[in-house]
Amino acid sequence: MRLELLGIVVVAASLAGGVGAAYLLQYLHRRRSKPGPRWFSGNIAAVTVFCLCYGFSLLVFDPTVRRVAEVVSFVCVSFMGPFFLAFGLAYTGRTDLLRTPLFGVVAVVPLLTTVLAATNPVHGLVWTGFRFAPTFGLATVRYAVEPWGLFALLFSIGTAAVGSLLLIGAVFSYGPLYRREATAVTLSTLPPTIGVSVWLAGVGPVPALHLTAPLMLVHVALDGYAFVGTHMFETSPATQRVAERTGLDKLTEPVLVLDPRENVVNFNDTAERTFDRTDTTGRPIPLETLVGVGLSTLTEMGEVEVGGRDGGTFAVSYTPLSDPDGNPVGGMLVLYDLREERQRKQQLSVLNRVLRHNLRNEMTVINGYAETLARTLDDPDLREQAHTISRAGNRLLTTGEKVRDFDRIQEAVTRPESVDLDAMVSQVRTRFRETFPDATVETDVSALGGPVRTRPAVLELALANLVENALKHADAADPTVHIRVRTAADADAAAVVEVVDENAPIPDGEMSVLDTASETPLEHGQGIGLWVVNWCVSKLNGEFTHRYDGGNRFVITLPAG
Question: Which of 5, 237, 446, 528 could bridge across to 170 with cysteines, CB 3.0–4.6 Å?
Answer without folding.
Answer: 237
